Amino acid sequence: MNFPENLKYAESHEWLRIEGDEAVVGITEFAATHLGDIVFIEIETEGEELDKGESFGTIEAVKTVSDSYMPVAGEVIEVNEAILDDPALVNKDCYGEGWLIKIKLANPADVDELMDAAAYADVAKD
To answer: Fewest CB within a 10 Å sphere: which of 35, 82, 98, 102?
Structure first.
């Protein structure tokens, strides 16, 4: 499995890429693989401020529905419209075109509590 070094990871299998005081959030290859073929994504939290661990949306695969959680606190400032139109983008390119949301970080220091790629790889083995 691929876990890019430039990202931070949450135990709930979301990744975060810092862009100034904002961040892009998606689900990891581990999560996308375990969900299977993703057929529907619902994210209705744009404009909302959410705490770390709160659900920002749901991902529906052929066999299951899973919540996606905020890896850090922040305001959801953008939803990736492309994945709403073509949810399979998450399976095809979870670290690129298949990102889920952009957030404005409530506290940039919170990012330091997330895992690096090596630590997440250990979690994803379990």
So the answer is: 82
